[in-house]
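Handout, section B. The chain below has 202 residues.
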Amino acid sequence: MGSAYLELLDWRRRVAELFAELRRRPADAAALAWFRAQKDLLFKQHPQSPIPAHERNEFCGLPYWAYDPAARVQASFTPLETEEPPPPPSEIAFRRIGTLRFELQGQPRTLGAFWIEGYAGGLFVPFKDKTSGQQTYGGGRYLLDTIKSADLGSEIQQDTVTLDFNYAYHPSCAYDPVWTCPLAPPDSRLDLSVHAGEKLSP
């Protein structure tokens, strides 16, 4: 069992290094292409890949939408006035801590901001949109999961968080049901089609 834990440790380290390097690069199409190529390589070769082992030899990369510069936004964070109680122990432990407000496709939008409970914690931003259950996984996609290093940056002085839908990704359970993943709650739905980030088929 020790080997599996070390594999997972290595996976998380490699993902963290990818996002750390990404934050040092310009926010452009070249950075996105670099990131996707590195991620696809991890998905094909790493023993902790969410792609089932018997499918990895034929795996040629995840399907993505083309780069959209308008899909990157700065979201203003508004904390909840009254803190939510922690979730029951039987549930995946995350709770809403506030709201992220931003503009996308020319309209004001909001998404819930959640905090993952447990040691260290982390910001978690899932979402559904009109592609969910059709062009993307029915349970939604993730924008941020900072406990797993999926983090594009924030500014504490301005109370803003960077959201880039070009990096929206599916939870591991979209590829293999052996994984257990938290899914986007009802107030994390956008009433539009977000044609950016990962999709289910080319």
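Note. Residues 61-188 form one domain. Compare this with the example in section A.
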